[in-house]
Amino acid sequence: MTIGMIGLGRMGANMTRRLLERGHDVVVFDRDPDAVVAAAALGARGTGSLAELAAALEPPRTVWVMVPSGAPTHETVEALGGVLSPGDTIVDGGNSHYRDAQRWSAILSERGIDLVDAGVSGGVWGLDLGYCLMVGGRPETVTRLAPIFTSLAPADGFAHVGPSGAGHYAKMIHNGIEYGLLQAYAEGFALLDAAPELITDPHQLAALWNHGSVVRSWLLELAELALSDPEQFGRVHGYLEDSGEGRWTVEESTARAIATPVIAASLYARFSSRTPDSYAGRIIAALRNEFGGHKLFATADGSVPDGVAAGPGGEATVGVP
């Protein structure tokens, strides 16, 4: 199939490469011309604007938007609505709020354009291992795009989970669960680190528990990897971002009166990581870097590093192309 890809950051670039490797024709655009050149060197067709990208695609067009959630996604979707035609489809693959997907789906449907919301999990490992895809939208549109989804996903790693908004809702809850899992591992390893008279090698236990233990998991494998180099781990600062989905999950639990004490506590733990440094915070920061390539904050005094701006809720935000 032919597909447009907008946004060639750490996710969009790897997804483009995976699609190219599986025989798809990918037309790309990014605000950074160097990112477009790099994708073109792999076989993609580079363009210099959204209008040029739309003109390079044959109807019915499909354009995947892989830019940061919030204003960048809203602006991109709105601009695409002006250059696409009835019968075309926009796939929002970022971590947008599910209500935004519902709103944009309603607006675009009036113009005859479909919106598919795709929750994407897999991080920087997705290029080789595939991306888990939770897709919301009209069944006929999702079916038409199935060759794209199945190429990006591993075996059994793609599902149509419901109508517009369902994909981003599923990803929101997925990330809320991730918050809780990360916090549980972090607290456990902090206790191991606090008992040097008994436990001299937490890395040894991470490796051991990955063989037959009931707490074995991919995250624990990443903990084993993160702890394998004590010198590098010693440079990790326990300053933790919350990327939005954890907050939204807690807000949703309040709105629906569903108790989520573990997820809520893990969100608050991220807030507390922004003052004194902690071993637990360093564990989570290291794991987020391992699975998602998230920035490591390496200042030693607990301050927000240079180049990191405080977001509206006090969270650190890092620009991603």
Throw out a few tags for this protein.
321 residues, eight-stranded mixed sheet, disordered C terminus, 15 helices, two-stranded antiparallel ribbon, 10 strands, alpha/beta, globular
Task: Give a description of the structure.
- This protein has about 325 residues and is an alpha/beta fold.
- The protein contains 15 helices and ten strands.
- It has helices at about 10-20, 35-40, 50-55, 70-85, 100-110, 125-130, 140-145, 145-150, 165-195, 200-210, 220-225, 230-235, 245-255, 260-270, 280-290; strands at about 1-5, 25-30, 45, 60-65, 90, 115-120, 130-135, 160, 310, 315.
- The protein has an eight-stranded mixed sheet, with helices on both faces. The protein has a two-stranded antiparallel ribbon with strand order 9-10.
- Strand 5, helix 5 (about 100-110) and strand 6 form a beta-alpha-beta unit.
- Helix 10 runs antiparallel to helix 11 and helix 11 crosses helix 15.
- The chain is globular, with a radius of gyration of 21 Å.
Question: Topology as H/E string?
Answer: EHEHEHEHEHEHEHHEHHHHHHHEE
Number of strands: 10
Mean pLDDT: 90
Order of strands in the sheet with most strands: 3-2-1-4-5-6-7-8
Count of runs of 4 or more consecutive helical residues: 15
Helix content: 40-55%
Could you tell me the radius of gyration in angstroms?
A: 21 Å
Task: Characterize the largest beta sheet: strand count, sense, and whether it forms a barrel.
Answer: 8 strands, mixed
Determine the oligomeric state from the structure.
Answer: single chain
What class, by secondary structure content? alpha/beta
Estimate the strand proportion. Answer: 5-15%
What gap, in angstroms, lies between the N and C termini? 25 Å
Overall shape: it is: globular
Name the poorly predicted regions.
300-321
